[in-house]
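Hi! If you just cloned this repository, the fastest way to understand the data is to look at a raw example. We've pasted two of them here, unedited. The first protein comes first, obviously.
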Amino acid sequence: MRRLATDSKAAADIRASDFDATKHWGRVYRTTPDDSVSWYEPEPRASLEALALAGIPPGAALVDVGAGSSRLVEHLLDRGATDLCVVDIAATAFETSRARLGPRATQVDWVVADVTAWRPERSFDVWHDRALFHFLTDPAQRDGYRAALRRATVPGGWLIVATFAADGPERCSGLPVRRYDGPGLVAEFDEDFTAHDVWRDAHRSPSGTIQPFTWVVMRRR
């Protein structure tokens, strides 16, 4: 579910009354080449920088929600990660990732789930989300997300979240998004987490479009 700008193959507006997230994102990943989706990045630079800012070691247990076919997991494996879980609503995204990883795919726990309804059965040191949270425009969705987050993290655990910035795109892949500045994004989680770092970053899509992002790193109290 990690989505950055409107994808040309999924750009039609979708009415909320008949929207099926599983079908929508499954179709996006089935019909668009992995390196052509607008959220594609060959190296997850900002994610790796966020992990470094928090001083998170390679052996930390990390869950990447809305992972899609992101290359973060392989970069973490390259750095010695041994406890990785990825969660996405689109099984087709994982087909791409598994094929790219080859035998190393067995080193990752693959979970097909809607994170707003997911109830993890274990906890992690790090919860990472690049561009999922901004799709949760309904307060009930955000409540479900936070419920999963609370269940998946313990005191001292880390939260890394990136969304479109306040001046970023208003829609993505035909869907409306909820944009955030730093204080606004921190406020979504400050009942349980304390801000560690907040910053703006820019992503360049394969077409050359620049989208501003807000990143936060927070720690569970």
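Ok, and the second one:
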Amino acid sequence: MIGNQARLRTGQSLIAVSAVGVLFALTAKWAGPDFIGVVPDGMEMQMANADADGAAGARPKTVVTPVSCEQLPNVPGKSITTVIVAFPPNGFTPRHRHPGSVSAFVLKGTLRSQLEGSPAVVYTEGQTWFEPPSTVHLFAENASTTEPAELLATFIADDDCGPLTIPD
């Protein structure tokens, strides 16, 4: 389990994540089929490279940094997991689903996101969206080709702190 000692500078960018359990959690729990590995600092993971329009060139990868995963004592069998998702300029996340409920909060930048059955929506800093369990998320992308964007995602799912994204 990852400690809950993460600190955010002015609520916008991750400064530090408690090292206790980070390497174990990243290698044993988040290393599902939707991730390609741990980046050199040992604390961030990258979503598989994706291409929004099927063109030959792939778009930049999003980087998912786990912040915490804690069992919910008042909801047996469930946990709350928080991650920061960094979108480089033109960054893209392909079609996927989540095994639990997800709330996303845009920390900086502008993101476009589309859930199956709904139109694409543009979200700016301070705005949120919600994804019910197993909803198909068609894509999420950084709307800017020059500025990074970041979101805070909070998941309520089974308490094993396992993979949070299911490729679809």
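That's it. A detail worth noticing about the second one: Confidence is low (pLDDT under 50) at residues 1-56.
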